[in-house]
Design brief:
It is a single chain. By secondary structure, the chain is an alpha+beta fold. It starts with a strand and ends with a helix.
């Protein structure tokens, strides 16, 4: 799978959260609510994938399980984030 589209919605920064990203994979699958955070050391970004409460703990809604796809999603989002947030 390849990232075919990235959209970023900036928000008023709160506790390192800068905005949310949506990605489209192969033009066939749309994933949204991916959190974009500044890294605690101030050098770049990190992503968080959506979770929902359930049974007293957080249940992951989705996340990449293939390391190559994970790296591609990060690279594409970080490239766009750098243009918007300039960290």
């Amino acid at each position: 799978m390849k990232v075919s589209k990235v959209e970023i919605i900036p928000i008023r920064q709160k506790q390192g959260l800068l905005g949310f990203a949506s990605v489209e994979l192969d033009g066939q699958l749309h994933l949204n609510s991916i959190g974009i955070h500044s890294r605690r050391d101030g050098q770049g970004y990190r992503l968080t994938y959506p979770t929902r409460p359930g049974g007293g703990s957080a249940i992951t809604v989705f996340h990449p399980i293939n390391p190559n796809l994970s790296k591609e999603i990060e690279a594409q989002i970080f490239e766009q984030a750098h243009k918007i947030f300039d960290l």
